[in-house]
Amino acid sequence: MAEESSNINGLAWFLAGLGIGALAGILYAPKSGRETREDLANSAREGTEYLRNRSKQVADQVGGMVDKGREQMGDYMDRGREVMDRGRAQWEEFVERGKSLVGDQSRRVSEAVDAGKQAFRSATSTATSTSGSGSGAFGSGSGNSGTPASSTGGAGV
């Protein structure tokens, strides 16, 4: 770890020395001051132009990445909506099935209750007609044994 830091530090000093040496070489070159200043100005303009072009390229690349990200996000949103719609449709189907099952069971229970009422009516009317005048609806005996015959008279329960 210390060796890496030393290498990086040494590289930084080397680059700094290289830059200072290049600057000293330009200043002490066999050109006139005007030519040297023009060369420095041209180099500065070229560097500025390079940075301007490079920043445009980077901006275009970043813009492309942003557009691609938006497109992917739109795709993910569409997939999410599709999944939500499918889930909602399945939920609605299950609710309708449940309603249908409850309706069927309710109808069956009503039919069973009606059949029970009908069976009770037929049983009480048969018991009343066969028992005659002395016995009640629940058995044989003499007279009124405390258990009265059907009090509904066949009108329903």
UniProtKB/TrEMBL annotation:
Low complexity composition bias: residue spans: 122-132, 145-157
Signal sequence range: none
Pfam family membership, one: YtxH
Basic and acidic residues bias locations: 34-52, 67-76
Keyword tags: Membrane, Transmembrane, Transmembrane helix
Keyword DNA repair: no
Region entry Disordered, spans: 34-76, 103-157
Record field: compositional bias (Gly residues): 133-144
InterPro entries: Desiccation-related_membrane, YtxH
Keyword Cytoplasm: no
Regions that span the bilayer: 12-29
Name listed for the protein in its UniProt record: YtxH domain-containing protein
